[in-house]
Design brief:
Strand content: 35-45%
Oligomer: single chain
Number of strands: 15
Helix content: 10-25%
Order of helices and strands: EEEEEEEEHEHEEHEEEHE
Structural class: alpha+beta
Shape: globular
Radius of gyration: 20 Å
C-alpha cells in the first residue's frame, strides 16, 4: 500500500512543550457548554522509532471541512464538519527535518495551520521538478499543472513516457507536479517504485519491513535526488498543492 512522507524543515523542536502531557492547540476558546472547535493534539509516540536521533510524534489534527450532507440521528442538513486526521511525525534535530506521514489533506492543513508555532517553526519545501526529471533515466508516470486553458491538469502513465511527443508538448506548456519512476538504491542494487511531488513528498509504492527502513530510504532518496533541487518556503500557507491521488 502506498505510503507518503512529506519532508519539512524544523531545525529546532521544543520537545518540553509536550514532554509530560499532550500539547493542545486551539484556534479559539470555547464557551462553557459548547462543543469546542477544531483542535490539534501533539504527543510523544507510544511506539517510537529507533533510527538515529529521530523523535517520534503522534499528531491528532482537526480542521473544518465544507461538505454537504445530513445527520444519521435526525436527518438535519449540514454543510460543514470537523475533519480529524492522524499524522505520524519524525523529527531529527541533527538534520533539521520533520517527516510527516499520513493523508495528504491532513498534512497539508497541519502545515498551513502550524507554520508559525514558536515550539515548532515549520517550513515546507518546493522541488524543481524539471531539474529532477532531468536526473532520472526513465519516467513511468507524471502529472502536469497548466496555468491557462480549459484543461488545468493532465496525467500520463507508461514506460519511457519522457520520450513521447505528448510528454514533450505538456512539459513545454505546463509545470510538472508529480513524477513516478523506479529508483535504484546504489547501496544494494534494488529498484524501488517511487513517486515524488513538487511539495516535497516522497511516496513509497512498495511494502517495507519497518518504519525505520522507510525513513532510511526516504532520507537516501532526499540525499541522492533532492538535495540542491529545492527551495525552502518560509510560509507553508503559500505552498503549492500537488496534483495526485490521495495517499496515506
Amino acid at each position: 500500500m502506498p505510503k507518503s512522507y512529506k519532508i519539512t524543515i524544523v531545525e529546532e523542536l521544543s520537545v518540553g512543550a509536550f514532554e509530560e502531557k499532550d500539547l493542545l492547540l486551539t484556534k479559539q476558546s470555547s464557551l462553557p457548554g459548547l462543543n469546542p472547535g477544531p483542535q490539534t493534539k501533539i504527543r510523544r509516540a507510544q511506539s517510537p522509532v529507533t533510527f538515529g536521533d529521530f523523535t517520534s510524534l503522534e499528531i491528532e489534527h482537526e480542521y473544518p471541512m465544507f461538505v454537504s450532507g445530513r445527520t444519521f440521528e435526525d436527518g438535519r442538513p449540514f454543510n460543514k464538519i470537523i475533519a480529524k486526521g492522524d499524522i505520524r511525525g519524525y523529527h531529527s534535530q541533527e538534520r533539521g527535518l520533520l517527516l510527516l506521514q499520513g493523508k495528504k489533506s491532513d498534512i497539508l492543513d497541519f502545515c498551513r495551520q502550524t507554520g508559525s508555532l514558536q515550539f515548532m517553526p515549520l517550513r515546507t519545501i518546493e522541488i524543481d521538478m524539471k531539474g529532477l526529471q532531468e536526473k532520472l533515466p526513465e519516467i513511468r508516470g507524471v502529472w502536469f499543472r497548466f496555468k491557462s486553458g480549459f484543461i488545468r491538469a493532465k496525467g500520463y502513465m507508461g514506460q519511457s513516457i519522457q520520450d513521447t511527443a505528448d510528454y514533450c508538448d505538456a512539459k513545454a506548456e505546463g509545470d510538472i507536479s508529480t513524477l513516478s519512476f523506479y529508483f535504484e538504491d546504489d547501496r544494494d542494487g534494488c529498484r524501488h517504485p517511487v513517486m515524488i511531488t513538487e511539495d516535497g513528498t516522497v511516496v513509497l509504492q512498495r511494502n517495507y519491513t519497518s518504519r525505520e527502513e522507510e525513513i532510511d530510504f526516504v532520507l537516501h532518496v532526499k540525499q541522492t535526488l533532492l538535495d540542491g533541487l529545492f527551495q525552502v518556503l518560509e510560509d507553508p500557507a503559500k505552498a503549492k498543492t500537488h496534483i495526485a491521488p490521495e495517499i496515506s
